[in-house]
Amino acid sequence: MFELNDDWDLEPKSRVCLLEDYAGSEVRWCPGCGDHAVLSAVQRLARDKQLAPEKTVVVSGIGCSSRFPHYMSTYGFHGLHGRALPVACGIRSRRPDLDIFVVTGDGDCCAIGTAHWIHAIRYNMDLTILLLDNNIYGLTKNQTSPTTPFGWRSQTHPRGSFFASLNPIAVTLGIQNASFVAQTIDWCPPHLYATIRAAHEHKGASFVRIFQRCPHFTEDVFAQAREDPGRVLLMTHAQGIPLDAAVLKMFPNRAGHDPSNLAEARELACREDVCTIGLFYRNPGGSRYDEVTAQGLGKTPGEKLAAIEMALDGFMV
Amino acid sequence: MKDAAIEVWREKLRSFLKAGVDGQPAPPPEAVLYPVKALLAWGARHHRLPADAPSLAVFYGGMLAAARKPARERLLEDLTRLSGKLRDLLAAEDSHSPEAASPEAVSASLGMEAEVFFDAAALSEALSHSTRGPLRMRPDRRRRIEATLAALEEYSREMRMAPAFWLFGAGESAAGIEAVGGRPSPHAGVLGFCEGLRDRLSGLLRAVRTARLEVENAFDPARHQERLEQLDWRSATRDELVSLPAAVVVETPERLSQESVGAFGRLLRSGYPVQILIRQQGEDLSGLRPDFGSLAVAHREVFVLQSSLACPDHLSQGLARMSETPRPAVAVISAPAQAESKSLAWQRTLLLYLSRAFPLYCYDPDRGQTWASRFQLHEERPEEALTPADAAALFPEFRCHFRVIPESAWKDEQVELCEYLAPREDAPTPRAVPFVWVADSEGRPERAIVSREMVRYCLDRLRAWTLLEELAGIRNEQAEAAVAQVRKEIEEAATNREQAAIEKAKREGASEAIRRVVAVLTGPELVKRPAKAAALAGQEPAPAPQQIAAEPAPASEAPYIDSFLCTSCNDCFKINARMFQYDANKQAYLADRSAGTFAELVKAAEVCPAKCIHPGNPRPADTTATPAMLARAAKLK
Ligand SMILES: Cc1ncc(C[n+]2csc(CCOP(=O)(O)OP(=O)(O)O)c2C)c(N)n1
Ligand code: SF4
Ligand SMILES: [Mg+2]
């Protein structure tokens, strides 16, 4: 009104959050643990997107990686082992206004939480799911997890693991209605950040598996890929993860891959000779269960009562 | 719509139309508001329009109420939503209180069947030992939220009870006004009323803004408290302004000019969203009556409509726009007076605007910043050239300004008034006598000589019209002068360009000739024709781009960190927190090389998971640069 709006600084938007506004309690991960890199990537993303801390939730299960919510000064839910995803789905089903991150580990997601994982991917609710995969149970000190490599010795398998390891990307790509599947590494922060950012921007369940170093128990698992960038295969595409030239230069071994090509994505996911990073698959058109569950929000108590009355009337004979 | 509703609607419409000007004004229902245009057109044809003050007020009030209803409902909805959110905040806070952890409260929140599985008392006990419970709301915030909630609730109660509009100065038709949701009040109170409205609005704005900030968790007392206290009604949005009940004032030019011109000006200057309807009947030859339309336009930021009941299209469109403006608004409406014959009264009103004695226009400051965008003059050209005297001839009070003369007295120097008034180059014949054509009782044409005053009156009206035209951008002298000037400049520029082109062609012709002579003398291979001979004529050919020197390889002797690769693992930080520091992205950079040793650099580079620390070569006096350390550094490369 009246040309001059002297009301402007009363607009709620005018708040600016800095990196430290997202930092929670003191971080207790081991020095050199890959989780640090993921934490700072998420904090940087929150700052860059100016996510309101009180409108952001980080949900986790149990594990070293699952201590993540404590280190963010947002809302957090450090839940039960394996149950991060059902809790996150519950939150999302009635809170379309929040930004929800799920942080889970290879034990949390791929062992005890497998059933939830499969159905959460099918539900395709808008969640940013970060699987911090160190190929081991870290918190409980060195037990074989589903993603532990074949032959790897641990407390539970002192003579080495008996099975071929589970491939979370291949599993996720096999689930109907999967809509965003990507893989990245903790030791390349720009790629890590760009991948989490793309996942956050995707509307639907975005599944990101992060190869995460555990210097205590799986120091050597990723050593080859870390020392020799030639062991990493970078998937590139105009519709893929956007990267700077400087980052591209770090990975001489590249493959153009169209993330809408599911068959090729599955093929790439199964390659064992290289550590493949980038966006495997994206389908923006998948049906989202949260669009159904969030219906009728914002109704006044009166309207809710009326709806209940009507439903009750339907039972009258 | 349901059939029954349509019937009610129809009946109301019928009774309104039936009432017309003869009977008492019937209370028009809300439904009448929608077909306003049709209604006005129909009414004009049958001389049944809300011509008297009370029914005009009722009519416009209904229009206003309907136009502003959506904004009002939106605001009420917003108030309800914000109150709900504030209540949620308080409820969430209450659930953190010690009382919420009591066995009873725990049991209640678990639900009826939960007793089987849970021991509420034990849970309550566990909750009370929680060392780091959730953050509690600060008491000042709680007080602020409670006060804001109370204010929001009071305002929404008040808004629900308030009438759609308040009417000032038309007590005589209370019933009709109430029927369209208005409430009549004595005229004198309008300024005071508006001031009260302003205070209520400031309070409402403060509550709404505070609530929004609280809901978004963005309230910062240091930044917002003072601003909120200074907040006044001018910060209101359009929606907020039009959602409050409007004050509608009904006036006549006579009453306004005698009693309250001062108050009129103050009201318009105040900027309060007041709506003033001035119903003007007949004409005033004396020129003593203020021109309220121009007066209002002179206030610049006021919405002004000058319209006539005899032009229903213009009137309905204008009133519709007026009902939406959040600004002070004035409508001067020409209406038929009481007359011995209804149709005569309407003809007078019609002729007043057709002859341009009463120009129709709309000045709407919301349309833009310039006259051209704000001001629209309604131009309707009747086939016959009418003069204001043709309209005046219909008024009995102006009869004395006309003298009908018999045909025998018709003379050559008698000229028709429209010709007499037409602008001309030469001076009018001093002896010219202006007349208008009138009809005698049998319909035969007669000449009526007009008085000096009548001619003066006509000239005054015509001048007024010309000025309005100029404002509306029609026949604007300044614009015409500017156009002529620009045209002249363009023509001159074109001439200059032509000259320049001729000169250039001459020059180029000469250099081309020289080039050919040289070519003949030296053989064709030696002189290559330049690619753009014409463009480069007389110029040196551009030198070949110089080879850009290859960038020297960076002397990788100094230590550095590839910050963008840092994983923020704290490892280097722990080795030397002065040498290694975090940037704004919480990624390490070499803050102070001199704060640490070569050995520290090498150790940090070794533990760095991202391998982004490059120790470089040691500084001369660094004793830690032992051969063993140098060997470790070499391995890192
Ligand atoms: C129901 C249940 N079963 C078992 C455990 C023990 N437990 C705690 S953490 C963990 C494994 C965590 O592994 P992962 O998810 O890979 O996390 P990491 O520590 O490796 O980050 C297990 C089995 C538990 N806390 N709860
Ligand atoms: S044990 Fe491994 S996973 Fe856990 S914090 Fe330490 S390094 Fe990280
Ligand atoms: Mg693990």
Structural class of chain B: alpha/beta
Backbone shape of chain B:
flat
Fraction of residues in helix of chain B: 40-55%
- Count of discrete alpha- or pi-helical segments spanning 4 or more residues of chain B: 24
What gap, in angstroms, lies between the N and C termini of chain A? 57 Å
CATH architecture label of chain A: 3-Layer(aba) Sandwich
| Count of β-strands of chain B | 16
| Poorly predicted runs of 5 or more residues of chain B | 12-48, 524-555
Quote the beta fraction of chain B. Answer: 5-15%
Strand order across the biggest sheet of chain B?
A: 2-1-3-4-6-5-7-8
| Computed structural class of chain A | alpha/beta
Quickly count the domains of chain B: 3
Strand content of chain A: 15-25%
Q: What features would you describe in this structure?
A:
The complex is a heterodimer of chains A (317) and B (637). Chain A has 11 helices and 11 strands. Chain A is an alpha/beta fold. In chain A, the strands form 2 sheets. A 9-stranded mixed β-sheet of chain A has the order 2-1-3-4-8-7-11-9-10, sandwiched between helices. A two-stranded antiparallel sheet of chain A has the order 5-6. Residues 1-5 of chain A have low confidence and may be disordered. Chain B folds into 3 domains: 2-87 and 153-378, no CATH class; 388-479, no CATH class; 560-636, Alpha-Beta Plaits (2-Layer Sandwich), CATH 3.30.70.20. Chain B has helices at residues 3-19, 36-45, 53-94, 103-110, 120-128, 139-161, 174-179, 190-215, 221-230, 238-243, 253-259, 261-270, 292-297, 312-322, 342-354, 371-374, 388-392, 417-421, 452-471, 477-522, 533-536, 571-575, 598-607, 627-636, and strands spanning 165-168, 182-185, 246-251, 274-281, 303-308, 329-335, 360-363, 375-378, 402-405, 414-416, 433-439, 445-450, 560-561, 580-582, 588-590, 613-614. The longest helix of chain B has 46 residues, at 477-522. Chain B starts with a helix and ends with a helix. The structure holds thiamine diphosphate, iron/sulfur cluster (SF4) and magnesium ion. Iron/sulfur cluster is lined by residues 29-30, 33, 35, 64, 134, 138, 214-217 of chain A.
